[in-house]
Amino acid sequence: MTIAHSLGFPRIGKRRELKKAVEAFWRGELTQEQLLAEGKALRQQHWQWQAEAGLDYVPVGDFAWYDQVLNVSCTLGVIPSRFLADAQQTSTTVDLDLYFKMARGYTDDQGEVAACEMTKWFDTNYHYLVPEFTENQSFKISSNQLLDEIEEASQLGLKAKPVLLGPLSYLWLGKAKGSDFDKLTLLDELVSVYGELLAKIAALGIEWVQLDEPILTLDLPNSWRQGFETAYNRLQSSSLNILLATYFGALADNLATTINLPTEGLHIDLVRAPEQLTSVVDRLPAYKVLSVGVVNGRNVWRTDLNGWLDRLQPVKQKLGERLWVGPSCSLLHSPVDVDQEQGFAEDVRQWLAFAVQKNKEIAVLAKALNGNESAEINAAFEKSSLAFKAKHSSSRIHDQTVQARIQAIDDTIATRQLPYHERIELQRQQLKLPLLPTTTIGSFPQTTAIRAARKAFKAGKTTEADYRTEMQRQIAEAISRQEALDLDVLVHGEAERNDMVEYFGEQLSGFLFSQHGWVQSYGSRCVKPPIILGDIKREQPMTVEWIRYAQSLTEKPLKGMLTGPVTMLCWSFPREDVSREVSCLQLALALRDEVQDLEKAGIHVIQIDEPAIREGLPLRKAEWQQYLDWAVRCFKIASCGVENTTQIHTHMCYSEFNDIIEAIAALDADVITIETSRSDMELLDAFEDFAYPNDIGPGVYDIHSPNVPSPAWIKQLLKKAANKIALKRLWVNPDCGLKTRDWAETEQALANMVTVAKELREEYQAV
């Protein structure tokens, strides 16, 4: 029989119960025992939903209090020394306190302890905590969380399939610390501990374990391919079947290595790489199970059940019971349940499937492949067919005026009038900024009062006039606080914005919005991505009134704040009937109109955030240039319609810039602000080695940590930056926006930042 299974389920809960519980624990409002009980209840509910959907195996181990990669680090005892007191060095158990210290950092009597570095999980908007390896790294089983959860599921009578990041991907995703060494030298000992862990899993009566090796869809050096052969030959077990899970792309030149590894099963992603099905089936060993990921784990659209049934039936005839059906990847990246949504038009609702519905699609497809022709199965396929036909012909999708504007694009609208080195002098004269100008990335704390006002307005409990008055009051307070801090370039604080993408999407045609379509971005941070339903255009100005009001309150320059076209695309659920490039061009044109209106309103500093530009990069280098060409073009279409005296900023966070530094330079933003504090300014190496020509604001403190940075901490980071970047091109700012912080820590951190900037101005100008 064809098996229905999932690679993972969203951990946050239908109503973000995990987020709320974890944050309550951090605030001291929940005890550890209460938090553990909340987590257990969520896991059991999620397993039950998946079993009820008809899955033959439910994933166990996809739950994490903060991040699944951090879970693996704690399981394997990969704890950076800065988190371990002498008494803990020989400890064999990682407790929840240590776990959260690694995730968030902390301050003690000895000073600040930085959290583990965070970066994007492949080309998704999920962030993982980067493992840190030393040359003498040791591994030992230091957490029983996975084993405890397996027992928990077994006690409920569920057929569990443990899920664990595989050893090669875990090594690849980590960083060498202390010295530059080959991480593969750690593989032998690492595999030994994986072997111990798998033996413990087998002893619990488990039949199948899923080892995720997504790096098999990347360009891998031969040494890493050989590492796979070495590792998996050692991990063979007579009592435990390994399903090797790959996703986010095609195996391509890693196919031969992957297909011949001594694992009992292989999962491939046919949503991102449908073309690989034939080559994999043709070369699949006769003993091996093939799991096909045909339900999109990263989008919200209904699966074409009829199309996949037709394509998989020949595979079923060839493989028989060795064919499994699942999602393309973990459903971590999908909202939980579309049945919660009350605001969708009924025709649109029929086009959508969230995680709960996707599991049902998987089960229905497996039953159909097994020959089940019941009325229930036939009805599911008929419903799928009708939904696809209705969507294809819907007037909600296409707008001829937008399509005509796309056709009229030429190169002239994507070029500034003067080169950077000429226009930056004009901008400096106009803005009259000091050496090492200080600013922030855009948002200020989203206080309880701000959220309450927005909630009341959306619920119809307050008038629009009252809401606008309250938002203006909040903006005025943000301006007043910034002037008191003596920042040089101010922001309006974004009090009126719920999310940096959703806020804009709500004002653009072509978008659809959910009420509860939350997905995890990192830790307890959840986002509710808009859904790109059809062609996109701006109906009217989106930010001008708020920014004009804020500028009226201060003589200092104020930044207009926009989210860039690539980020809006990457952080939305995209259409599947047009290319990403087409949707991005539509967004660029809409934002171009907004940029020009801001300039007309007297705003001469405009920030167009593009934190997702690295995230959107294809995983295979052969596909990079095509993507970068249109991504850069879209940014320039959005930003280049202004005068030379208007300064364009952009912001990027948690990205490895080295590989795309030329493309970043091609954006031709006057100022770029980037995350650098968690990496101790290492990211600036890319900007130095390439001789990046424009202004740079390296983040001098980590806003994702509750730590308030000391002046000494900020000063040493800024001095490192000054050794790499010319002083006249250096800006001073935090790593990212401050919406998740509170005002007390925000003001203290910014006060320290401004103080250091002023001290360094005097120091450097005196030399």
From TrEMBL:
Specify which residues bind 5-methyltetrahydropteroyltri-L-glutamate according to the UniProt entry for this protein: 16-19, 120, 125, 525-526, 571, 615
MF terms in GO = 5-methyltetrahydropteroyltriglutamate-homocysteine S-methyltransferase activity; zinc ion binding
> Which cofactor is recorded for it?
Zn(2+)
Instruction: Tell me the residue numbers annotated for binding Zn(2+) 1.
Output: 651, 653, 675, 736
Cobalamin-independent methionine synthase MetE N-terminal domain residues are 4-319
InterPro entries, sorted: Cbl-indep_Met_Synth_N, Cobalamin-indep_Met_synthase, Met_Synth_C/arc, UROD/MetE-like_sf
Q: Where is the Cobalamin-independent methionine synthase MetE C-terminal/archaeal domain?
A: 436-758
Catalytic reaction equation(s): 5-methyltetrahydropteroyltri-L-glutamate + L-homocysteine = tetrahydropteroyltri-L-glutamate + L-methionine
Residue positions of the active site: 704 (proton donor)
- The UniProt record gives the binding positions of Zn(2+) as 651, 653, 675, 736
Give the co-factor note: Binds 1 zinc ion per subunit.
Pfam families in the record, alphabetically? Meth_synt_1, Meth_synt_2
Binding site residues for L-homocysteine: 441-443, 494, 609
Q: Which UniProt keywords apply?
A: Amino-acid biosynthesis, Metal-binding, Methionine biosynthesis, Methyltransferase, Repeat, Transferase, Zinc
What is its pathway? Answer: Amino-acid biosynthesis; L-methionine biosynthesis via de novo pathway; L-methionine from L-homocysteine (MetE route): step 1/1
Q: Which PANTHER family match?
A: 5-METHYLTETRAHYDROPTEROYLTRIGLUTAMATE--HOMOCYSTEINE METHYLTRANSFERASE
This chain's function reads: Catalyzes the transfer of a methyl group from 5-methyltetrahydrofolate to homocysteine resulting in methionine formation.
- What protein family is recorded? Belongs to the vitamin-B12 independent methionine synthase family.
UniProt name for this protein: 5-methyltetrahydropteroyltriglutamate--homocysteine methyltransferase
Instruction: State the organism of origin.
Output: Spartinivicinus marinus
Organism phylogeny? Bacteria, Pseudomonadati, Pseudomonadota, Gammaproteobacteria, Oceanospirillales
Q: Which gene encodes it?
A: metE
